[in-house]
Amino acid sequence: MPGSLTGSYRSLSGTSDVYRSTTVAGGGGNAATGILEGMKKAFSFMAGGTAATTKDQKLIQRVSSGGPVVISSRTENSNSYNRKMPASGVAEEAALLGTMPSDSMDDIELKNIQLQFPSTRSLSRDDSSAQEEVVETDRGNLVVAVQGSRNKPAILTYHDLGLNYVSSFQAFFNYIDMRALLENFCVYHVNAPGQEEGSATLPEDYIYPTMDELAGQLGYVLSHFGLKQFIGFGVGAGANILARFALNNPNQVTALCLINCVSTQAGWIEWGYQKLNARHLRSKGMTQGVLDYLMWHHFGRNTEERNHDLVQVYKSYFERNVNPTNLALFIDSYVRRTDLSIQRELDPTKRKESNTLKMPVMNITGSLSPHVDDTVTFNGRLDPTNSSWMKISDCGMVLEEQPGKVAEAFRLFLQGEGYVAPLSPTKMALFRKTSLEELLKSKMPNGGQWPMNVIHITENPISAVVC
Length: 467
Prior knowledge:
The protein is of the alpha/beta class.
């Protein structure tokens, strides 16, 4: 440093300057020798092994003429700490940060990589918890799958073309929101003749039932299980069948949830396509043309752009799990359907006498479904006081693409009709044709007085008692 500065830095020994040749003005001697000696003493201090340095010696002494002196003394703790400085780089970094890691990073070793994939969408009956039973009818046997406790109100489902209860309803009724709702219901899944999984090919002389006859078979199902009333839940062709049964037996259907329901007879374009599909199914099996039509029927257009994986699942299902001959018979019956012949009564005083569905109806479709116009026509023929039309956006097959929205709408629909968890005992009484008074008397103690922990709740459209 220039000699004009106020002082110089002395060495640890106090006799020699560490930076004598560069920091002390006018310093003489060999510059190289001074630098070498300074480096030796500096490294000797860091190692703590120089005999000339003692624990009481001053580390740095700033010598100045009349200026302040800054002194830092070596203590016992600092000396012992210097002697115990870790040697490894990781330990030094940890000491500088003030923490010492418990485990060294060198001990971590990657031994195995295990891939986990989400469970794939399954259309197999093996994943179903329903119990299947065979019901005998005048037009052959039906396979009905029962899901839930049979002493609870009944929901009866009917599937669409190319599907059965497993491929159409299993995923939806196992959806988390629906599982919570179905704790208060028992679901009866009806399969059309020859459409159940693994069904044998129907005989050549078998005459497949018409749509009206398929609706009439539901009476045998009700008799077999001892049901007085049920809530209908149908899709496509199954929705049409349930609507026909409700028109002929209005007292046995308390409510209907119909998806993509068609109330008119088949047009010429639909008739031509379906006839061609039925011919190919009988002669060649599941051709590409039939497969494309079924995918359009269920999903609409541009399906793979919305949900590629779901499309592949259903394509594989149609190719491998559908009996083509039996499906051709079902398609023939559906394409020969007649008009429901229902009409909305504009005069409010005559609505009770109108030829339409008397029970509450929820009419659902998807915005990308090819059946939107059919559901609009169907909605225009229903009584507006007890029906609602719902179009769900960004989907064609609503049960698969938007199950959460359908589940919420169905739950609110049932709640509006009084089907909520606290009201299920009363609804069970209605299903068995017992009066509300008989139900209340059966819950009364011997004295005919209600206990203190019973709450009386009145909710439209019926009164209920919650214990």
